[in-house]
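Translate sequence into structure tokens.
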Amino acid sequence: MQIGMIGLGRMGGNMAQRLGERGHDVRTYDPGVDSTAATLEELRDSLAAPRTFWMMVPAGKITEETFQSLLGLAEAGDVIVDGGNSNFRDSQRRAAAALEHGVRFLDAGVSGGIWGRELGYCLMVGGDAEAVAQVEPVFRDLAPADGYAHVGASGAGHFTKMVHNGIEYGLMQAYAEGFDVMQASEFDLDLHEIAGIWRYGSVVRSWLLELLHAAFEQDGSRLEKIRGYVDDSGEGRWTIAEAIAEDVPVPVITAALFARFASRQDESFAAKVNAALRNQFGGHAVKAADK
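Result follows.
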């Protein structure tokens, strides 16, 4: 089928190539990359109605601006898909705005990273069933077998992906802490080897563990080339906010997010307070700060 892919970064570019390799007619627009169209208007005119536009741009201002531009260009029956990591509340609002224009909107949570082109992308799609049916050939060819589902109404796709990423935070932090304990131990453990054997038969085997094994292989068992600074893209915060709103305890995901915050501090003031208190009540020694 025909599809207009907007945004050809690490995800969008690979998705466009995967679809092209599977026989889809992919038209593209990205002002920073060679594309089949120089403008969104040209992209629209290159597609036969009813059109499918797929936004694969960063969440936030760029997504909103692109959506509003498409809303002014699209015609009744066209479908706009947001495959980025937008907040599900924004997706619900955009679906309602699109409906007022006779245009349909789908929110697609996409997981697979840079490996998706080869292995496929897990797709969690929210929105109207008729719109999903229009785009389903694309969904099925982007995903591996059994890796795609229409999970619910508008917003459900991005909500599900939000929780998915919150879980990811917790899994990653558990691996990080476990390997930290091992590297600090009295034993001269080969962490690369251990990550390797845990991939087979272990109850903690996973794709994340396979990726960690690859990282050790690339950067050494002590990851000497990597600074311990961990960003977050927002989904963990949103997951925690929704959990608070629904009175659902999520201590693991919350702790994992706070651990990422801590990783960005060259000097933790909280640690200073802890050290000062231990010194005050117990006479425990404190280390002098670097000058």
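Note: The chain has twelve helices and seven strands.
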